[in-house]
Design brief:
Blueprint: H1 8-16, E1 24-31, E2 55-60, H2 63-76, E3 82-86, H3 87-93, H4 100-108, E4 114-121, H5 134-149, E5 158-162, H6 176-193, E6 198-204, H7 220-225, E7 230-233, H8 241-256, E8 262-268, H9 278-290, H10 293-301, E9 304-311, H11 323-333, H12 346-364, E10 365-366, E11 375-376, E12 383-384, H13 385-397, H14 401-413, E13 424-425, H15 440-456, H16 461-475, H17 502-512, H18 517-534, H19 537-540, H20 568-579, H21 582-598, H22 620-629, H23 636-648, H24 655-668
Parallel strand pairs: 2-9, 3-4, 5-6, 6-7, 7-8, 8-9
Antiparallel strand pairs: 1-4, 10-11, 12-13
Length: 677
């Protein structure tokens, strides 16, 4: 038998002799890591969250094809590399040689990401009962044992277990109950060897080829309580374009209802035509014509998170490194669904935001006292780095390069020896007595604005990289990875949750290639988890102005949700909108539920963490970010009300209020985007 992955001749063989095709089980083992990651063990490296969606995976056929195409993957900077092994014979034969052991070592140890896909077919006459016996009891656990034994992180290990007994040819060799029992045994065996591994149930695309929808009710228990991922396999067996356009979205929606990340696998992406494989032609057309714009957004909204494309080195196929391939990946990665705009319509939102920016420039940005540049000024003539950060961020969002450059030049003119702006500058254009160190929040906003400007206009990369590096060196506490208050103080002993900007850090990581930013993301979310456990934040979602990283208060700092902490929903919403981080989404859901119960017009300017009012007045600094938390709400009346309330609370002469109001409206209106997409 041909050892390439279920190629066309194999499929024809099965179609002609269906009685030979008994239940099959295959394992998708995914190790996710950035190409720049070095070897990290499970013990000394904090697990990453799920990769931001969508993740595009390119699968190689067999080891020979893999060797031929390896350079293409290296050149393309792929995050995932795949190898495939057919059946129990090759699986056993290849264990210590060219099989999983060698592949894992060859790629993981070189700092590359890897995906291993092992096909285990029960149709081989020499291996009767493979599904329920040998694999469940030995091979799944063996692979997990190899992985863990090498010190590799088990949280990067994904097993997707497939069975087609009921949905393929309805063969009587195994009952559905036997399949589910086998799945549970496999899951237990895997978890025993690699506790952090994620195991899920999968279904073949063939299930959706016939009339009607497959009955998933017998799998409810596993999908709801025993799966970490769900997969549907849409191979190149499709030969009707219209059918594929109908069934792929339906299958994603069906599996997505279980709140699991959905993987769709086995697409072949061919240029022009491939005479020997009509299904591959249909798949290529589907990828290039159907997977665009709002249709693609809808698939992601329904739960799609991982694409698996197949590569078997062939002249007709579009491979990594080509312009066609880059266009495909760009399309798939740029249509992740930004939550629907809360503005009543695009025209209204555009006019409102443009007018607000004109007011901001009139009342907040000045050349007076700026030393020949521009600054965001306060009534007493002082300037804070926070204001420069807001101004630069708004300027690049509104495509105002002149304002942007004037503000950035002012910031650079006031950099200290660490390459960070002194946080408060007096009317004499010098740092005030208490302003001679940096403030992390302002520097982060400037760095993000510089990256956005570089992607939009070009010419800012050197400044952006230097600023991000200086933030990393001086404003992230070594060892704990907690965000400091500035370059001279703060860390685990005292930190400001509103300085924690996980969406920025993920962009910093991708832009600069420093993988350690993921540690900062994890450390911040772990701090939030501790606050949820120890305080009323677990119910309200409200975080304090200042806290120790262990979730306990410092008596010298505010532990309420007031004028620092009100910015937390803005920071978390950026991560949720740009990357779909579940931790951000979970916290924002708490925040939204709390404020929705109060009502858009009754939100006050400060609360204790368990929801008691601290300041009995209203302020857009609280209403606007509360509105941002409603981006992910399905309560349309409340979304409309809090949008209208934020719009109405217009005080263009108030620096802090006008800054947070405009940033909130940009996010609520769908205008603050990830610059790298």
């Amino acid at each position: 038998m041909n050892r390439s992955l279920m190629n066309c001749s194999t499929m024809k063989y099965f179609m002609n002799k269906p009685w030979l095709f008994l239940p099959f089980l295959f394992v998708i083992t995914l190790f996710f890591s950035g190409c720049r990651h070095g070897i990290q063990t499970g013990r000394d490296y904090v697990p990453d969250p799920d990769l931001p969606a969508p993740v595009v995976i390119w699968g190689l056929g067999d080891t020979e094809s893999a060797a031929k195409a390896q350079q293409l993957f290296t050149d393309a900077g792929m995050k995932i590399i795949s190898h495939w092994f057919n059946g129990p014979e090759e699986w056993q034969w290849g264990y210590e040689n060219s099989g999983p052991q060698a592949v894992i070592r060859g790629h993981y140890d070189n700092g590359r990401a890897i995906q291993i896909v092992v096909w285990l077919h029960d149709w081989e006459e020499d291996h009767p009962g493979y599904l329920t016996g040998k694999f469940v009891q030995e091979d799944a656990a063996r692979l997990a044992r190899i992985w863990s034994g090498n010190g590799y992180r088990s949280d990067r290990l994904f097993f997707v277990l497939f069975s087609e007994v009921e949905t393929y040819y309805n063969l009587p060799s195994l009952t559905r109950e036997e399949i589910l029992a086998a799945y549970k045994k496999a899951r237990a065996a895997i978890k025993a060897e690699a506790p952090g591994a994620r195991v899920g149930l999968g279904f073949g695309g063939y299930s959706w080829l016939g009339p009607g929808e497959p009955d998933l009710s017998p799998y409810e228990e596993i999908l709801r309580f025993h799966s970490d991922i769900a997969c549907v396999q849409h191979m190149h067996a499709y030969d009707k374009y219209e059918l594929m356009c109908e069934q792929v979205p339906e299958s994603i929606a069906q599996l997505g209802q279980y709140n699991l990340p959905v993987m769709v696998s086995h697409f072949k992406f061919w240029q022009d035509s491939h005479a020997d494989n009509l299904g591959a032609q249909v798949t290529g057309r589907f990828v290039q014509e159907y997977l665009t714009g709002e249709r693609l957004r809808k698939l992601y909204a329904d739960g799609l998170r991982y694409w698996v494309f197949m590569a078997e080195v062939a002249e007709e196929q579009i491979l990594p490194g080509t312009s066609e391939y880059k266009e495909l990946v760009w399309s798939l990665r740029t249509h992740y669904p930004y939550p629907s705009s809360m503005a009543p319509d695009e025209t209204t939102a555009g006019q409102l935001l443009a007018g607000a920016w004109e007011d901001y420039k009139e009342y907040q940005i000045t050349a007076e006292g700026a030393g020949g540049f521009l600054r965001v000024g306060k009534p007493n003539g002082e300037t804070v780095s926070e204001g420069i950060g807001y101004g630069m961020l708004l300027a690049v969002c509104f495509d105002d390069r002149e304002i942007f450059d004037g503000l950035w030049q002012y910031a650079k003119a006031h950099h200290n020896q660490k390459g960070l702006m002194d946080w408060k500058i007096g009317p004499d254009n010098r740092p005030t007595a208490d302003g001679k160190n940096s403030a992390t929040d302002g520097d982060e906003d400037m760095a993000f604005a510089l990256i956005t400007a570089d992607m939009k206009w070009g010419g800012y990369r050197e400044d952006a990289e230097h600023l991000v590096e200086n933030i990393w060196r001086h404003q992230i506490e070594p060892g704990t990875y907690i965000v400091k208050g500035g370059d001279h103080w703060g860390g685990a002993a005292i930190t400001n949750p509103s300085y924690f900007a996980p969406g920025y850090y993920k962009i910093f990581q991708e832009y600069t290639g420093n993988p350690e930013w993921s540690r900062v993301v994890d450390a911040g979310y772990e701090m939030i988890a501790r606050l949820n456990e120890k305080t009323g934040a677990g119910q309200t979602g409200l975080l304090p102005d200042w806290t120790r990283a262990n979730g306990e208060p410092d008596p010298g700092f505010s532990f309420n949700y007031t004028y620092d902490a009100c910015r937390v929903p803005l920071r978390l919403a950026m991560d949720a909108v740009w990357f779909g981080d579940r931790r951000a989404l979970a916290q924002l859901e708490k925040v939204n539920n709390f404020f929705a119960r109060i009502g858009a017009g009754k939100i006050k300017a400060g609360y204790t963490l368990d929801g008691k009012v601290v300041n009995d007045w209203s302020d857009v600094c609280f209403t606007g970010p509360a509105g941002v938390a409603a981006l992910f709400s399905s309560a349309q009346d409340y979304r409309r009300e809090i949008w209208e309330q934020t719009v109405a609370m217009d005080d263009p002469q108030a620096y802090y209020q006008s800054s947070l109001r405009l940033l909130s409206l940009l996010l609520m209106g769908g205008k603050l985007r990830n610059p790298l997409e």
